[in-house]
UniProtKB/TrEMBL annotation:
It comes from Ardenticatena maritima. Catalyzes the oxidation of 5,10-methylenetetrahydrofolate to 5,10-methenyltetrahydrofolate and then the hydrolysis of 5,10-methenyltetrahydrofolate to 10-formyltetrahydrofolate. InterPro entries: Aminoacid_DH-like_N_sf (IPR046346), NAD(P)-bd_dom_sf (IPR036291), THF_DH/CycHdrlase (IPR000672), THF_DH/CycHdrlase_cat_dom (IPR020630), THF_DH/CycHdrlase_NAD-bd_dom (IPR020631). The gene is folD. GO terms for cellular component: cytosol. Pathway: One-carbon metabolism; tetrahydrofolate interconversion. Its EC number is 1.5.1.5, 3.5.4.9. Belongs to the tetrahydrofolate dehydrogenase/cyclohydrolase family. It comes from the Bacteria. GO terms for molecular function: methenyltetrahydrofolate cyclohydrolase activity; methylenetetrahydrofolate dehydrogenase (NADP+) activity. Keywords: Amino-acid biosynthesis, Histidine biosynthesis, Hydrolase, Methionine biosynthesis, Multifunctional enzyme, NADP, One-carbon metabolism, Oxidoreductase, Purine biosynthesis. Residues 141-279 form the Tetrahydrofolate dehydrogenase/cyclohydrolase NAD(P)-binding domain. This is Bifunctional protein FolD. Homodimer.
Length: 286
């Protein structure tokens, strides 16, 4: 039976450490690290995500703002709001919630983000610097959380074969890069990948970032492999990951549960990114 990678317990520890660091920052600078979430429309999934970020930020004593424009707002309205948030010295992190309405040019908004406030790591400057491992940049909190879990359990990925299933800019690709930078041999799989189970079966580390309940089954997993499940799916009102947990846990060496795996660590990493953003802004503002 696999060892459980307990993200909930890790998140509690990391949160404590972060709050000590944040407290010292607040006392030294008078700045309370603050995030602003920007969305167009009131889609329930967007509201639910904002609620959970609000809870996490308020619990940590960080600042939280929500800015909702109507779903039929114009590109200019959203751009103006984003410019306002970019310029506001009391806002350190900005999350543009997706999906945006079809008539909105998402690329234009992302390019307009101040990269120092881009706590999701979606601006091409951050993504490019991550890819090249140069200078200072933000990395999306979900893959950062995945790496934090591996670190906490002293799982060394150097020289190991890793398969990341999913190639989004926010989870799959940055996770693959972070593993690569730690000297894993990485394959990125996606919806057109052939023989996915056989590919995964060769891996020492399998990361699932897809959004399909039960996609990763027992036959995907080499005995003893590490399984990191980023998936968030609701089946009959119950939260489940992309991994068929019960059967995979019988063969894997290590596995993140859902809930209680990558999710709670992601929340702490968003706090971490917001504190980093606040430091970055203060150090570079004249
Ligand atoms: P996206 O929908 O942007 O990307 C999903 C990826 O999965 C795509 O690359 C897609 O391939 C691939 N895919 C889809 N179907 C298959 C399949 N049958 N076989 C192999 N690959 C497939 O999702 P995100 O990256 O934003 O999120 C992924 C999951 O992670 C979701 O469940 C999301 O809710 C969750 N998530 C979890 C977080 C956490 O804290 N744990 C935070 C953020 C997201 P293609 O590119 O070819 O379309």
């Amino acid at each position: 039976m696999a060892n459980i990678l307990d993200g909930k317990a890790l998140a509690a520890r990391l949160r404590e450490e972060l709050m000590t660091e944040a407290q010292a920052f607040i006392e030294a600078t008078g700045h309370v690290p603050t995030i602003a979430m920007l969305r167009a429309g009131d889609d329930p999934a967007l509201l639910s995500h904002a609620r959970s970020v609000r809870r996490s930020f308020e619990k940590a004593g960080f600042g939280f703002q929500e800015h909702e424009l109507p779903a039929d707002c114009s590109q200019a309205d959203l751009s103006a709001k984003l410019a306002e948030l970019n310029a506001d010295p009391h806002v350190h992190g900005i999350l543009i919630q997706e999906p945006l309405p079809n008539h909105i040019d998402e690329d234009a908004l992302i390019l307009a983000l101040d990269p120092r406030k881009d706590v999701d790591g979606v601006h091409p400057l951050n993504a490019g610097l991550l890819q090249q491992q140069r200078g200072r940049y933000h990395v999306s909190s979900t893959p950062l959380g995945g790496i934090a879990i591996l670190d906490a359990y002293n799982i060394d990925v150097k020289g190991k074969r890793a398969v990341v299933i999913g190639r989004s800019n926010i989870v799959g690709k940055p996770m693959a890069l972070l593993l690569l930078h730690r000297h894993a041999t990485v394959t990125i799989a996606h919806s057109r990948t052939q023989n996915l189970a056989a590919l995964c079966r060769e891996a020492d580390i399998v990361c699932a970032a897809v959004g399909r309940a039960g996609l990763v089954t027992r036959d995907f997993i080499k005995p003893g492999a590490v399984v990191i499940d980023f998936g968030i799916n609701f089946v009959d009102g119950k939260l489940v990951g992309d991994v068929a947990f019960d059967e995979v846990a019988e063969v894997a060496g290590w596995i993140t549960p859902v809930p209680g795996g990558t999710g709670p660590v992601t929340s702490v990493m968003l706090l971490r990114n917001t504190l980093n953003a606040a430091k970055w802004l203060l150090e570079t503002s004249s």
